[in-house]
């Protein structure tokens, strides 16, 4: 049976696509997707580093 990883952190529609969170992610799990950023669930290590770097508080656990 394949294990399904749930995403601990999400980026809301409040994201202004500034990219501030990109450099804070130690595993490069954040990328641009259309007009906002997205977090890859299978890459994210749930460290929370991105949460404090978002200037509009669009990232939450």
From TrEMBL:
The keyword Heme does not apply. Its cofactor is [4Fe-4S] cluster. Keywords: 4Fe-4S, Electron transport, Iron, Iron-sulfur, Metal-binding, Transport. Residues 6-31, 35-61 form the 4Fe-4S ferredoxin-type domain. GO terms for cellular component: cytoplasm. It comes from the Bacteria. GO terms for molecular function: 4 iron, 4 sulfur cluster binding; electron transfer activity; metal ion binding. It holds the Pfam family Fer4_10. PANTHER family: PHOTOSYSTEM I IRON-SULFUR CENTER, PHOTOSYSTEM I IRON-SULFUR CENTER-RELATED. Ferredoxins are iron-sulfur proteins that transfer electrons in a wide variety of metabolic reactions. This is Ferredoxin. It comes from Citrifermentans bremense.
């Amino acid at each position: 049976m394949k294990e399904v990883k749930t995403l601990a952190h999400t980026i809301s529609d409040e994201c202004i696509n500034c990219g501030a969170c990109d450099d804070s992610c130690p595993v490069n799990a954040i990328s641009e997707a259309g007009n906002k950023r997205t977090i890859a669930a299978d890459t994210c290590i749930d460290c929370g580093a991105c949460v404090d770097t978002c200037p509009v508080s669009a990232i939450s656990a």
